[in-house]
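so i finally got all the pieces together for this one. its two components total, 694 residues if u count the protein bits. some of the lines might not be protein, just check the labels. i wanna see the whole assembly predicted at once instead of chain by chain like last time, that was a mess tbh
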Amino acid sequence: MSPLNQLLKPNTYKSGPDAAGRFGGFGGRYVAETLMPLILEVEAAYAKAKADPTFDEEWRRLLKDYVGRPSPLWFAERVTEHGRAKAEPGKGAKVYFKRDELNHTGAHKINAVLGQILLAKRMGKKRIIAETGAGQHGVATATACALFNLPCTVFMGATDVERQQPNVFRMKLLGAEVVAVTSGAATLKDAMNEALRHWVANVEDTYYCIGTVAGPHPYPMMVRDFQSIIGAETRTQMQEAEGRLPDLLVAAIGGGSNAMGLFYPFLDDPSVQMHGVEAGGHGIETVTGHAASLTGGRPGVLHGNRTYLLQDEFGQILEGHSISAGLDYPGVGPEHAWLHELGRVQYVNATDKEALEAFQLCSRLEGIIPALEPAHALAHVLKVAPTLPAETLIVMNMCGRGDKDIFTVAGHLGVKL
Amino acid sequence: MNQPRSQGRIAARFAALKAEGRGALIPFLEAYDPDPATSMAILRGMPGAGADLIEIGVPFTDPMADGPIIQLAGQRGLKAGATLAGTLAMVRDFRAEDDATPVILMGYLNPILSYGAERFITDAAASGVDGLIVVDMPPEEAEVLAPGAMAAGLDIIRLVAPTTDEARLPLVLNASSGFVYYVAITGITGTRSADPEALRAAIPRIRAHTDLPIAIGFGVRTPEQAGFAAKVADGAVVASALIDTLAKSLDEQGRAKPDSVRKVLDQVRELAAAVRG
C-alpha cells in the first residue's frame, strides 16, 4: 500500500462528520445565506440536547412505549432454507431480519422523527414541516405532530401524491396538511426543494424535519444518530442469538437512513461486511431508468450537501426511476458517498423486477409483506446468501412494511383491486 | 491579470453613480428564456433602457431559493437548451458592443462544479463576466470557487439576509466583493414585497460593517419600490417582476411574441426613471 493510501484510510469510520459537517469530501452546508443561520441554530440546539441526559431518556421512553422498540431480530428460517435449497452443500447463509417494519407507523422513519420533534420542542418551534416520497416519513412526522399537538405540513410531489394515496389519506387523518408539489418533476427532490423554500419563508416558528441522512449539516449526522438505534439493538440481539457479531449487513438505500442506522454501530468492526442496495429500476445501464446514485451517478451539490447525484453532463439533476417511491431520489446521504469511496461499504443494486419477486417471495415464505424498499435489500440477500458458507450470519433491515405498496404491486402484477 | 478589483467594471459603475448622486438599477434576465435570441435581445437592450448593471440567471433544475416565477423561467431556459457555456457565450456577444455595463451571473453551484470550477473561472473572466452570485455557496463552502474567482478579477457577491445576525455579518461581508446583495424578505424570490421600514433599519446595520455598495433584491417589484431601494441603499435588483412580464407576453406554446422584448425593456425604462427620479 502506498503511503498516500494509508493516509486516506481513517483509523475510525465513526468520527465523522468534522466541524464543517464533512465526511471526507462529502456533506457540508451548501445552502443560501437565508437558511444558514437556521441550520446553525439546529446544530447548536442538537449539540445541547445531545449533552442532556433527559433528552435521551425522553426519546427512549417514546421509542419503548409508543413505537414498540426494541424491534425483534427474526431468524428468517424459510428464507434461509430457500437459499440453501439452491446452494452447494455447506453453503447458504443464515438470514436474520431486523424487524423495523413492526414499529408504530410501519417503518424506521419514526425513530428519527421523534428525536427531531423533541428537539423542535426544545427550540421553541411552533410548527413542523417535512418532505416525503413514499409517504412513510410524512406519516411518521404527522403522527409525532399529532402526539405533540404541533401543526404539521408535509410536502409531497404531485406524482407521489397520485401513486401513494393511502399514505396521503393517513397523513390527513393524523391532522397534517399535505401540499402537492407541482414544481420541477413533482417528485421527492422537488418536495424537498419546496420544503426548503417554505422554511426560508417561515424561519421564526418552523422546524424542518428531514426524513433521511441527507441535506445540510447537521441533518445527515443527526438522523444517523437517531437511526443508529437499529444497529445498536442488532448488536445486542445477535450477541444473544448467536453469541457473536453478524458477518454481513444488508439494507436498501434511497437517501440511506435505514442503512446508516444499521451500519453505523458496526463500522469499526472489520469482520462485519456491509452491502447497501440501491434501486436499479429498469437496470443501471438505462440513462434515467434507475435511482442508483452511487453506482450510476457522480459527485455534485444538491439540497445542501455534496454527494453522489444523478445528473447530466451539464450538472442538471436527473429524475431517477424506481418502482419504490421511497428510493426514487437522485441523491444519497453524504456519509454513504464517503463510505463508498473508502470502500468500507459495498454498494450494489437490485432492479424493480427483482424487488417485486422478493416482495412476493417474502410474503409467502415468512408471512411478512415487506415494503418495496426492503424488498430491494431482500432481492440482494437472495442473490448472495446461496454463495456464502452456511455459518455466515446475514442481517437484513426490514425497514418498512408493505401495506402501503399493495396497490402498486397489484398494478404491476396486473391485478385489479 | 491580478488587477485590483477597484478597477473592475462593478466598482467603476458604482463609483460613477455615486458621483451622479443616485443608486443603480440592476435588472435580471434568465438565460435562454424563452429562447436564446429573445434573451439575447433583452440583454442587448437593457443598457439602453436604463440598466446600470445586469444580472443573468443561469438555469438550474433545482433552484431552491427561487419562487415559482423564476423556477419557470429556468425551466423554459433549460428546455431551450441553456447551459453554462451558452450563458457565457451570451456575455461574450454582449461584450462585443458594450464594454462598460457590469454583468453578474446568478446561479447555483452544481452546474459550475460540473463545468469545472477552474475552467469556469477562466472562461467567465475571458467572456467579460464581472461578478458571481452563487446562491448555495455560503462563505463556509466557498473555497472551491471564491479564491480563484477573486484572483481572476471576478467579484463574489454575497447575499445578506434578514436572518444574518450581527455575529455572522462580518464573516459574510469579509468574504464579499463588488457589492452586497441584501435579501429584503425572509423568503424566496418574487413572493413578497419588501417592508420599507425594515429596510431603513437593515441597511445602516450592514453599512456599519462594510464600505461596499449595497443593492436590495427579492421583493422589489414596482418603480416606486425600486426608487426607494436605490435611495435607501445603493441599488435595486428587479427580477421576478420582469420575468413575469416576459412570461405573460408569451404565446400559448410559451414562445416569444414580436412585442415580448419591447414589453420587458419598457418596464426596465419605467424602473430606471424611478431610480433616476
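Chain B has twelve helices and nine strands.
The CA atoms of residues 18 and 104 of chain B lie 20 Å apart.
anyway lmk what u think
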